[in-house]
Amino acid sequence: MLNAHSKTAIESLYLETGTIPLRFLVKSRRINYLHHILTRNNDELIQKVYKDQCRKPIKDDWAIQVKDDLESVEISLSDEKIKWFRKAKFKKLVRSKIQENALKYLNDLKMSHKKVKTLIYKKAYLKDSNLSIEKKQLMFRLRTRMLDIKDNFSFLYLDKECTLGCKDVESQEQLLNCDTIIKNCVELSEDLEVEYEDIVGDITQQTKFINLYKYVMDTRKELMKTLSN
Hints:
The protein has helices at residues 10-17, 22-38, 45-55, 62-72, 79-83, 87-110, 125-128, 133-143, 179-184, 203-228. The chain is mainly α. It is elongated and about 80 Å long.
């Protein structure tokens, strides 16, 4: 879907697309089913089994798992309080807590990956934009610093100078200032009020940025073909 590099930080796939990890979806299903159980009649089998597990818990009982789920997503409610929630209101509470804790989990996880640890996620950028698939893929590679250029994979290159002949280190930022690209990319000579930092800006600025960067990458691709010939 994102045509991502195999070394891409897994958590960035979730964060950029606004996808909830499966472990949190399972918790959500269990917690919502707990509400279903608690609202059944006392003589129903599932109600009896649940109460028996609560009275005499043993390892891996469903009742223990769901209590752990409630604690892990910070829902501090007794069975009696959960029982008196309306179904729609309780599902809304669970959804909110699941999203909040999944985001916290993923943000904590990304701190171990230097390419994405400085990014701040409050919403799903790719999910909210109306960009084409190709531009979303490019945006994803840029934001995760997985674009196939020298500075992003410095361990593969002894010479990190711009492939097109500049003396600067070839980086994502540098491509917007590469003299060779500027001479061949009309869009870079225009005042589009776009800066590299717009990659983490609002949706409007991101759209302007990626439209420009797409032209830059297309121009670079054609220049690379000329050099190889």
